[in-house]
Design a protein that fits this description.
The complex is a heterodimer. Chain A has one domain: Orthogonal Bundle (MetI-like fold). Helices cover 73% and strands 1% of the residues of chain A. Chain A is built from 27 helices and two strands. A two-stranded antiparallel sheet of chain A has the order 1-2. Chain B is built from 13 helices and ten strands. Chain B is of the alpha/beta class. Chain B has two domains: 146 residues, 3-Layer(aba) Sandwich (D-Maltodextrin-Binding Protein, domain 2); 152 residues, D-Maltodextrin-Binding Protein, domain 2, CATH 3.40.190. In chain B, α2 runs antiparallel to α11 and α6 packs across α7. In chain B, strands 1, 2, 3, 4, 5, 6, 7, 8, 9 and 10 form a ten-stranded mixed β-sheet that branches. The mean pLDDT of chain B is 89. Classes of the chains: A mainly alpha, B alpha/beta. At the A-B interface, α4, α14, α21 and α26 of A face β2, α3, β7, α8 and α9 of B.
Chain lengths: 572, 345
C-alpha cells in the first residue's frame, strides 16, 4: 500500500497512471467476483454437473441432453414457456411504464400511496395471488360467468398463468422503470419546449431514449422471471406444461437430478440473452444526468394529472382486489360452503402450523438480506459502472449478476446443498445456518436489485468521476459524498425489495432450513398442501401485514433521506 | 455471617444450575419427515413418554422435497433417521446404500407385506395410505352427477371434465394409482387393459395436479366434483367440513406405506435405534391408528368413521420392486399418452 502511495506521488508524469485507490477498487471488484463465484457459480455448477451424470453417478457425457431433446414434451413446454412469457411481458411493460411515468413525471397526488399499493404483489408469496385468482375466477369463482362471457372457458391453464404472472412481475418491472425515469435533465425539456416541440414528440425523442436502458432491463427481467417461475403454473396452470414445472416434475417428482438440470440449463438461456442485450445497450446509453443537469420537475396540468390518477387508480384497484379476496378467504370458515367469518384459520396457522417462531426467523433473515444485499449490490454495481481498469473482471461479474433471475429457486437450493454440504468444502459449517439462508436469498434476488442500481448509476454523468480523478480525490470519496447521496432513493428501493422478497421466498430456502432456522413462508406452503387453504391465506396475509409495516418504515426512511440528500434537486 | 450465607446460597444455586443444564443435555436426533405437523406433535409426546432423554428435531416437507433433499445430502448426511416417508422413496434411498438395516424390537408383530423383505430390514412400515376418491356431494347434486362405485365408472361420459388426479410424474400418490390400475387391468407394455382404462379416464380428466393432496382439496372446495386422492387427506378434509363422500372403488386400491428407516452413518445410532423401537411398538401403532385405518401391526387401529370395514382387503397386491424397476418405462408411456399433448379445449 505504502509502495503504491509512493509510486503515485513520485511518478507525476504526463501519462496518467493508475491511482493507488484504483487498486482498491480492483481488489474490491475481485472480492465481489469471488463472492459471486462461491455463492452463485459454484453451487450452480455443482447441480448442473449432475446433467452429465448417469443413473449410477457415472459420467454419461451428453446422453441426458440427447434423451431429453427427443422427448416430445420438450417442444410443447418450451413453446408454452416462451409465448406465455412474451404475452406477460407485452402486457406488463406498458402498464408498468405508465405507472412509473405517472409517479415520476406527473403532479398527481397520493403518489406514495400508489407506490405502496403497487408493491402488494410482492408482499405475499405468489401462492396468494394464485389462491385469490381461483377464488375470483375458479369454478366456484365470483366472476366465473363474466370470464366465460369473454370467451375464456376456465382459469386453469394459460389464462390463469398469464394473469397471475402479470400481477406478480409488475412490481419488479416497476422498480426498474421508476429508477430509469426519475432521473431526467430538465434542460432538454426546456429546450424542446422553447422550440415548440409537441408533447408526444418530447416523449418519443427525450423520455423514451432516456429510459431505454430501464425499459429493456425491465422487459428482459419480466420475460425471464415468467420463464423460470414455477409457483404460479404449479397452482393454477392446470395441464398447461411449462419448462419450470417440468423441472419440478423431474427433480421433486422423480428425483431425477440429471434430467432436471438439463432443463435448468435451458432456462439459463434467457439470462445469457439478457446479458448480451445489456452489454450492447450499455455501450449506447448516454448519461441523462450530466454534472450540469437541472433536475426535471413535473409541471401541474389538470387534465393530464387527472388521467394519470385515473390510470393508477384502476391498476391499484386490481391489486387491492387480489389482496382483498385473499383476506376475505382467510376469514371465511370454509370457502365456498360456509362463509361465516371466523378466526380459526389464524389460530390454526399460528398454533398448529408453528408459524410463530418462523416469523422471528423470517424477520432475521429478511433484515440481513436487506442490509447485506443492498450493500453488496450497490457497491458492486458502482465498481462496475464507475471505476476503470481491470477489464477482464468486468464481463464475468456482469454475467454473474444477470444469472440469478434465470435460476429457478429449487435449482439454486439444491445446488447449495450439493456445494455447501460437501465434506470437502471448507465452508460447510455454513450449512443449515441463517447466514446461508440469507446469502442464498440475496443471490436469488440479486438481478433486479443489480439492474436497479445500474440503472440509477448509468443516469449519472461520468464527469463526476473524471473531475474527482483529475483532482486526485480517491474514488471512494466521490462514491461516499456524491454518488451515494444522489442514489439513496434507489438504495432504499433495493433494500425494501430485498426485505419483502426475503419474507415471502419459498422455493430455494425450502431445501436449506434446519429445525432452528425454519422461516414462516415455508409453513404457508405446507398448509396449502395439507388442504388448509384458509390457513395458508391467513398466514400469507400476516406476512403481507408485516411486510407492509416494513414497507411503511422504508418509505419513512426514504422521505427522511430524501429531505437530507435530495435537496439539490429542488432549488425552489 | 450474612456474607457467608450469601456465598452458600450462590454455591447452591450454581450447583442447581449446573445439574439442570446436565439434565437438559438430551441427545438430539434430526429426523426428516413428511408427516403432518399435528401428527408430529402426538408422536413426539408419545416417544418422549418412553424416552425422555432423547429430543427429536424435525425437518418436515412433502415426500418429494424430503427425498430430493436426502439424495442431495448423500455426500454428507445430516439426517439421523427418516420417519413417515413413503416406502417407495425409502426403497430408492436403500438402492443408493443410504439406509442402515436394523430390526426394531417390534418387528415380529409387523405384517410381512408392510416391511422391507431383507433381514434385518432397511425400513419398516408404520401405516398404509391408500387411494381414495373424494366425491363432492353438493356439486354433484347441482350437476346431477351420480356417485361412482368403481374405477370404471369414472370413464363414463357423466364425469367429463369433472375429475382431478395427481400427475404420476410429480406425485407418489399418482404413481401408485397408475401402477395399481396396471396391476388390476393389465399392462402388457402399453397395450393392456390398464392403459385402455386410462385412455378412457383421460377423456374425463380436468387436470393432473402436482400433489396427491390437491385433488381432494379441489373436490372439497367444489372446484371439481371428483378428486382421486388418498385416505388420510380425504378423512381430514371431511372432518374440516368439506361436503365430500369417500369412495373406495371396488376393483382395488393402490397404496403405499409411511415408513421408518435409520440413515446410514448417523452418529447417534443408539438414540435412533430407541426411536425405531418405539416407532414399531404397539403404543406408536395406536397413535398411527388415530389417523390411518391400517397400521403395520394388525388389529390395533380403531375403525375410522368413513372407511369401510373391508378396506384392507381392497388393497391391490403391490410389488414395490416391480414398480421401481418399471417406473421409467411407465412414466415415459404415461407422459407420451396424456401429458405431452397441449391442453384440450
Amino acid at each position: 500500500m505504502i509502495d503504491a502511495v509512493l509510486n503515485s506521488s513520485t511518478s507525476l508524469t504526463v501519462r496518467q497512471k493508475t491511482h493507488w485507490s484504483d487498486r482498491i477498487a480492483h481488489l474490491s471488484l475481485a472480492l465481489v467476483a469471488l463472492a459471486l463465484m462461491v455463492f452463485l457459480a459454484f453451487p450452480l455448477g455443482a447441480i448442473l454437473m449432475q446433467s452429465l451424470l448417469g443413473k449410477a453417478g457415472e459420467f454419461a457425457g451428453f446422453s441426458n441432453f440427447i434423451t431429453y431433446a427427443q422427448t416430445p414434451a420438450l417442444l410443447t413446454s418450451l413453446w408454452n414457456s416462451v409465448w406465455v412469457s412474451i404475452v406477460v411481458t407485452v402486457i406488463t411493460l406498458p402498464l408498468a411504464f405508465g405507472f412509473a411515468y405517472a409517479i415520476t413525471r406527473s403532479c398527481m397526488s397520493h403518489k406514495s400511496l400508489f407506490r405502496g399499493i403497487s408493491l402488494i404483489p410482492l408482499l405475499a408469496p405468489s401462492l396468494l395471488s394464485a389462491i385469490s385468482l381461483i377464488y375470483w375466477f375458479g369454478n366456484q369463482g365470483v366472476l366465473k360467468a363474466a370470464m366465460q362471457s369473454v370467451g375464456i372457458a376456465q382459469i386453469y391453464g394459460a389464462p390463469g398463468i398469464v394473469v397471475a404472472e402479470c400481477f406478480s412481475v409488475f412490481p419488479h418491472a416497476l422498480m426498474i422503470l421508476i429508477t430509469g425515469l426519475s432521473l431526467a435533465d430538465a434542460r432538454l425539456y426546456e429546450a424542446a419546449a422553447a422550440m415548440g416541440t409537441t408533447a408526444s414528440r418530447k416523449f418519443f425523442t427525450i423520455t423514451v431514449p432516456g429510459a431505454k436502458y430501464g425499459l429493456l432491463s425491465a422487459g428482459l427481467v419480466t420475460f425471464t422471471l415468467v420463464m423460470t417461475d414455477f409457483g404460479i403454473p404449479k397452482v393454477i396452470g392446470g395441464n398447461f406444461n411449462v419448462l419450470a414445472t417440468d423441472v419440478f416434475k423431474l427433480v421433486i417428482g422423480q428425483q431425477d437430478f440429471a434430467k432436471g438440470s438439463v432443463v435448468a440449463l435451458l432456462l439459463l438461456l434467457p439470462a445469457v440473452l439478457t446479458f448480451a442485450v445489456d452489454h450492447y445497450v450499455s455501450k449506447k446509453q448516454t448519461a441523462m444526468l450530466t454534472a450540469r443537469a437541472v433536475p426535471h420537475r413535473p409541471v401541474p396540468s389538470r387534465g393530464y394529472d387527472m388521467a394519470m390518477t385515473a390510470f393508477c387508480t384502476v391498476i391499484s384497484l386490481l391489486m387491492l382486489a387480489m389482496l382483498g379476496m385473499a383476506i376475505f378467504a382467510s376469514f371465511a370458515s370454509f370457502w365456498p360452503y360456509n362463509l361465516t367469518p371466523s378466526l380459526r384459520h389464524y389460530v390454526l396457522g399460528m398454533v398448529d402450523g408453528e408459524v410463530g417462531e418462523g416469523f422471528v426467523n423470517s424477520l432475521k433473515m429478511a433484515s440481513g438480506t436487506a442490509l447485506f444485499g443492498t450493500v453488496l449490490v450497490f457497491f458492486s454495481a458502482y465498481l462496475l459502472e464507475k471505476t476503470k481498469g481491470a477489464g477482464w473482471l468486468r464481463a464475468p461479474v456482469r454475467m454473474l449478476a444477470m444469472l440469478p433471475m434465470a435460476v429457478p429457486g429449487l435449482v439454486l437450493g439444491l445446488g447449495y446443498i450439493f456445494f455447501f454440504n460437501a465434506l470437502s468444502n471448507p465452508l460447510n459449517w455454513l450449512y443449515h445456518t441463517t447466514a446461508l439462508l440469507t446469502l442464498c436469498t440475496i443471490v436469488h434476488f440479486y438481478t433486479t436489485g443489480h439492474l436497479t442500481a445500474v440503472t440509477a448509476l448509468k443516469a449519472l454523468d461520468g464527469e463526476f468521476e473524471a473531475v474527482s480523478a483529475s483532482l486526485k480525490v480517491p474514488w471512494y470519496k466521490t462514491f461516499w459524498r456524491v454518488t451515494l447521496p444522489i442514489c439513496t432513493p434507489a438504495l432504499v428501493d433495493i433494500a425494501r425489495y430485498f426485505f419483502i422478497n426475503a419474507m415471502t421466498t419459498i422455493s430455494a430456502v425450502v431445501f436449506l432450513y434446519s429445525p432452528e432456522t425454519k422461516v414462516a413462508s415455508i409453513a404457508i406452503l405446507n398448509l396449502d398442501e395439507a388442504g388448509e387453504i384458509g390457513a395458508a391465506a391467513a398466514m400469507a396475509v400476516m406476512i403481507a401485514g408485516i411486510s407492509a409495516v416494513a414497507t411503511g418504515v422504508f418509505m419513512l426512511l426514504a422521505r427522511l433521506v430524501d429531505r437530507r440528500t435530495q435537496a439539490w434537486r429542488g432549488t425552489r | 455471617m450474612r456474607l457467608s450465607s450469601l456465598y452458600r446460597w450462590s454455591a447452591l444455586a450454581t450447583v442447581a444450575l449446573i445439574s439442570s443444564v446436565a439434565l437438559a443435555q438430551k441427545t438430539q436426533v434430526l429426523v426428516y419427515t413428511a408427516l403432518e405437523t399435528d401428527q408430529l406433535k402426538a408422536y413426539q409426546e408419545g416417544f418422549n413418554k418412553a424416552y425422555p432423554d432423547i429430543e427429536i428435531k424435525w425437518v418436515r416437507d412433502s415426500t418429494g422435497v424430503i427425498t430430493a433433499k436426502l439424495l442431495a445430502e448423500k455426500g454428507n448426511p445430516q439426517a439421523d433417521a427418516v420417519m413417515g416417508v413413503a416406502a417407495s422413496s425409502l426403497a430408492v434411498l436403500d438402492k443408493q446404500g443410504m439406509l442402515e438395516p436394523y430390526a426394531p424390537s417390534g418387528l415380529a408383530a409387523i405384517q410381512a407385506q408392510y416391511r422391507d423383505k431383507k433381514s434385518p430390514p432397511a425400513w419398516f412400515g408404520m401405516d398404509v395410505w391408500g387411494a381414495t376418491v373424494c366425491f363432492n356431494t353438493v356439486e354433484a347434486a347441482k350437476k346431477g352427477i351420480p356417485k361412482p362405485e368403481t374405477w370404471k365408472d369414472l370413464t363414463k361420459p357423466a364425469y367429463k371434465g369433472q375429475i382431478v388426479m395427481p400427475n404420476p410424474a410429480s406425485s407418489g400418490t399418482g404413481f401408485f394409482d397408475v401402477t395399481a390400475w396396471l396391476a388390476l387391468f393389465g399392462d402388457d407394455a402399453g397395450k393392456g387393459g390398464g392403459w385402455q382404462f386410462m385412455d378412457g379416464l383421460h377423456e374425463n380428466i380436468a387436470q393432473y395436479t402436482h400433489s396427491g393432496s390437491k385433488p381432494c382439496n379441489m373436490a372439497g372446495s367444489g372446484e371439481f366434483v371428483v378428486g382421486i386422492s388418498f385416505e388420510y387427506r380425504a378423512n381430514s378434509n371431511k372432518a374440516k367440513g368439506a361436503p365430500i363422500d369417500l369412495v373406495f372403488p371396488k376393483e382395488g386400491l393402490g397404496w403405499d406405506l409411511e415408513a421408518f428407516a435409520i440413515h446410514k452413518g448417523t452418529k447417534k445410532l443408539d438414540a435412533v435405534k430407541r426411536l425405531a423401537d418405539w416407532a414399531s411398538s404397539k403404543d406408536a401403532m395406536a397413535l398411527y391408528g388415530k389417523n390411518f385405518a391400517i397400521t403395520a401391526v394388525p388389529g390395533i387401529a380403531a375403525p375410522l368413521a368413513n372407511v369401510p370395514a373391508d378396506y384392507e382387503a381392497r388393497l391391490v397386491k403391490m410389488d414395490f420392486s416391480w414398480a421401481a424397476e418399471n417406473r421409467d418405462r411407465i412414466l415415459a408411456e404415461w407422459t407420451k399418452r396424456y401429458d405431452s399433448k397441449s391442453e384440450k379445449k
